[in-house]
Every structure is written in C-alpha cells, then in structure tokens.
C-alpha cells in the first residue's frame, strides 16, 4: 500500500508549523496542506523550502480566519471574518466560494511552487454544493483532491471521478489517541493500493490555544506520529509512505 500521511493546518501558526515539520522529519507524516489565509503561512513556506521531502498542498478555508477576497458577504460576518460553523454554506454564493478558493490557490502558485493536491478545513470540499466548485478548480489547476466520499454530506454517485486515493481515514483525531489506535487505522486502510490518513500534529502556542477548539490533543498526535513503534510497524508491513505526487 502507498500511504499518504497528511498534516492539516500548515500555516495556522508557528507552533502548528513546527509540529508538522517534526512529524515529517522524525515521524511518518509525508504531506501537509497549507491554510493560505492564516498568519503563519509565510513561516510555513520558509520551513517547507528547507524541507523539500515534505509534500505541500492547499487546505482550502471557508470557516476560519478571514478571506483573501474583499467582497464575499455570503461567507463573512459583520467583522469581515469567515462565519463560524457550516450552516450558512448551504446557501452561500457559489460565485463567491469559487473566487475565494481561486484566490487561495493562486496565492500558493505565486510562491513559485505547485501544490501537491487540494483538501479543505472542516472538510467543506466534500459538501454537495461545494464539491463541484473544487472539482472544477482541480481540473483547471491539474491537482488531485482528497477523497471526498468519506463524508456523509456527499454521495459518490453525484460526482465524477477525480485523481484521488482509493481510501481515506479521518479517524486519527480526538481525545483517545494511542499508538495502537494509529496502527489499527493504517491496518484498516491496507486493503487499498493507495490511501490517505488525516492528522493534526502541532506544538501548542498562543494562537492555537486562542483560536482552535482542537489544541491540546495535537501534541499527543505529534508524539504518536513520531513513536518508534509506529515506524517499526510501517517498516514491518512494507507500507510505502508517499505524497500525492506519487499516486498517479
């Protein structure tokens, strides 16, 4: 099996960025996705430049921070920030969503790099009203997309084929994180030729504590993703750790 271990939220803050890079250098993380609208993004790009083995894609955002576009009222609150939650996305302007996602992707390309793939914060790309927009952009920019059919919002029959993995897991998340739990997730994906697992390793900093409801468990994720037992299991099972560039 070819396994992508992706760390979401690259660019959220320096603590998140440093945790992701350590999870790659010392652990099994192979890939990360960048939040192009967050304050740690420039720091993340500097780290990525010095860590060329880490695949880096775009973590499309509609529910955290502020938009890059200035006129997207169906997505923002009275302060100009993205609205919290996802209830409003069912009726959000498709044109505004596409402009904002395009701005986030184009900001990445202006760095001179090409993203490895597209995914999204809080899985908004898998929503029935938003997935067609993401698929159009994936086709336009020639990018793979995180497997969107693992989420309840979207039926596979409603969407065309995209370049993605055969399997995906978002279960390495929450309070009950253990080495055995991680090994079980990887084992559960082993029936697929290609698969991706979502992770959120980080060091805690003020920005993360203040802005995210999921903070302290990220340090536990970092500990597990760099655990010797996990690396030993990967080697024993001959799991190939790859990026999206290697699944085509």
TrEMBL record:
- Taxonomic classification: Bacteria, Bacillati, Bacillota, Bacilli, Bacillales
Q: Which Pfam families did the record assign?
A: YdjC
Q: What class of enzyme is it?
A: hydrolase
Q: Which family does it belong to?
A: Belongs to the YdjC deacetylase family.
Q: Give the highest taxon in the source lineage.
A: Bacteria
E.C. no = 3.5.1.-
Record: residues binding Mg(2+) = 59, 121
Q: What does this protein do?
A: Probably catalyzes the deacetylation of acetylated carbohydrates an important step in the degradation of oligosaccharides.
Q: Which InterPro entries does the UniProt entry name for this protein?
A: COD_ChbG_bac, Glyco_hydro/deAcase_b/a-brl, YdjC-like
List UniProt keywords, sorted A-Z. Answer: Carbohydrate metabolism, Hydrolase, Magnesium, Metal-binding
UniProt protein name: Carbohydrate deacetylase
């Amino acid at each position: 099996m070819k396994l992508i271990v992706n760390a979401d939220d690259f660019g959220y803050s320096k603590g998140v960025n440093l945790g992701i890079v350590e999870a790659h250098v010392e652990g099994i993380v192979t890939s990360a996705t960048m939040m192009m609208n967050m304050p740690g993004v420039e720091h993340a790009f500097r780290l990525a430049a010095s860590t060329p083995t880490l695949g880096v894609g775009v973590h499309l955002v509609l529910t955290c921070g502020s938009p890059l576009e200035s006129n997207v009222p169906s997505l923002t609150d009275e302060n100009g920030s993205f609205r919290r939650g996802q209830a409003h996305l069912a009726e959000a302007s498709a044109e505004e969503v596409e402009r904002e996602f395009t701005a986030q992707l184009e900001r990445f390309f202006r760095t001179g790099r090409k993203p490895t793939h597209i995914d999204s914060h809080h899985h908004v790309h898998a929503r029935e009203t938003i997935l067609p927009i993401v698929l159009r952009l994936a086709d336009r920019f020639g990018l793979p997309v995180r497997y969107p059919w693992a989420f309840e919002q979207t039926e596979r029959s409603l969407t065309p084929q995209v370049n993605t993995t055969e399997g995906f897991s978002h279960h390495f998340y929450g309070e009950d994180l253990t080495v055995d739990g991680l090994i079980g997730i990887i084992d559960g994906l082993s029936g697929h030729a290609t698969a991706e697992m979502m992770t959120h390793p980080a060091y805690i900093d003020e920005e993360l504590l203040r802005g995210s409801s999921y903070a302290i468990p990220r340090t536990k994720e970092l500990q597990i993703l760099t655990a010797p037992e996990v690396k030993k299991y990967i080697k024993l099972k001959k799991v190939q750790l790859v990026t999206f560039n290697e699944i085509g």
